[in-house]
Amino acid sequence: MPIGVILIWDMLSVLGPSRSPTTAVVRVAGIASLISASRFHAAFGQSSAIKHAVQTHTRAVLMQLQHVAACNALQPVESRMARWLFHIHDRIEGNFIPLTQEALSELLGVRRTTVTLVVRKLRASGAFRSARRGLVEIDRPRLEESACECYKVMRCQYHQIFPLDTTKPHIRAAPAGKTPGDRGSHLAE
Prior knowledge:
The chain is mostly helical. Helices cover about 45% and strands about 10% of the residues.
């Protein structure tokens, strides 16, 4: 897969034809490819490379789901927000992250008012050095003070599955106001 290209497929489609119970949500603008489930299923049946890619991706997704579930049950919202910001920051260039309070509340499974309180606390600590409308600039070392150990554990396991040189596509965040589906108040407000 070329760097900068995100290939999204429904892993469940390889189990046979059925309506998918999942929905893909894109949080950061980039380039994506789309393939029909029938074409993907046919390619999966003919290519050992595609089978290997699906198996590898499945391992990574299952690992992430297990750790996120444990982290959500055991860690405070501030630590979980730091973890999500690191996960997104790892996949973009620069320190500006395009996220709304609504998007963060969905990622964290909390109300937007909770996100507002946590953002204020992180700003006071200097974890958010500056912000522009729709883009948040993080101070990674200061944000690490708020993060739980879950991020480092997940990142280490992720790098065991995927080589370091292929994990960070070169994707530039869309300018403020240009992010598709960007509704609600912005984190930087």
